[in-house]
UniProtKB/TrEMBL annotation:
CDD domains: AdoMet_MTases (cd02440). Residues 217-312 form the Methyltransferase domain. SUPFAM superfamilies: S-adenosyl-L-methionine-dependent methyltransferases. Keywords: Methyltransferase, Transferase. Signal peptide: none annotated. It holds the Pfam family Methyltransf_25. This is Class I SAM-dependent methyltransferase. The keyword Transferase applies. One of its GO terms (molecular function) is methyltransferase activity.
Amino acid sequence: MTFLTRLDDGSLKEGAAPTFALSQRGRAGLEILGAIQTFSSGTLRPMAAANFEENPQGRMLGEDHASPTPAFSERERIAKARTVCEGDAIYRLERFFQRYVAEENFNRGIPAIEERRAEFLAYDAAMAQGSDETPEAGSLTLAEDLAIPAWFAPIEWHLEPGGWDGYDLYGALFAFGVGPYVFRKGGYAAVGIGDDIVGQRLKTIRQFPKDSYARIYEPGCGGVSTLKAVHSVFPEAELHGADLSPLLLKNGARMAARFGFPVHLKQADCATDTGEADASFDGVITYALHHELPPKANRALFAELFRIMKPGADIVISDPPPFRAVSMFHAVILDWDTLHREEPFFSPVLHESLDAMLEEAGFEAVESYAIGQDQYPWITRARKPESTAVEAQA
Ligand SMILES: C[S@@+](CC[C@H](N)C(=O)[O-])C[C@H]1O[C@@H](n2cnc3c(N)ncnc32)[C@H](O)[C@@H]1O
């Protein structure tokens, strides 16, 4: 994400510089949430983890989790470990704070942005004007009649009221409110305490094995934070992104115009039809996407990405680590998001193997590994074969 706390940032384009800030009350209300989250993840959570390790049942489950021949299934182990955790008051307090902050981000953040509605609208208008001046910089294609998948439409992702498109100023809320004052501290979902979430994107993009790419595609690109990082690592690459959310795409187009990098954005259900030509990209990046799709939709997505990739093209994925890769206690922490932070597919996907899904889709050289603390970011990367079986037979 691109977080900006100084709303009078002097580097903004002429005529587009906001000369306002959040009110004292709005800023302070969000800052305390960041402090609570830091205390919860940085102080309470290690205490709860130690209590789990000291509990004989917790220790037994941890050993079973690490065993190549476990007595319990992964689902059974997590359910039993959750019961151990819930017997610990420190764990319960830590989880209370996590839920409280997740909800209050919006209860406090939306009013803080509303206080500056007129200013943010004027700022957005200036940004839009900027992008019109440089149409060659990119494109935005919305599809009003797009069928939104039934598994996507009703979800208020991460407790966001109305889901991704539920509030017209979510862009401002994330860039100027919740982003800098809460998310930047880390310590939520798979993001560790103190993690640099901007740096994590750059590090992920450096997992592409080649030095240069002509055309890179990102399904589920949201507000283009990851494509912005791609541009800084591969400035020569032509960038394409797609998302289901028109609001995120509009924000992304403004962001790209503001930071002066060209990007082609399209509204699409990438698990069904990206609308892109066969064999047209030599790189695909996905960031924080797969845990938001049901496993079946992920399989369809990989088949579609395989289709649009050139032979020899590379795919690099960053998503939360699978349960098999983390400690028993950490598996309970990740699993919690499914029911308590409106992430319905988090656990279903973390029980699966993206590696296996990629192989099923036809990819080769599949590998996965962690590049940060607590196994996050968890990278999965692969390559489309130079010749596919069908071509080889022809
Ligand atoms: C957690 S966000 C990540 C956004 C972006 N990749 C980033 O790095 O900031 C996940 C995004 O995936 C999008 N998404 C989920 N399912 C999708 C689908 N089937 N087709 C296109 N986009 C999808 C959501 O709308 C959301 O913007």
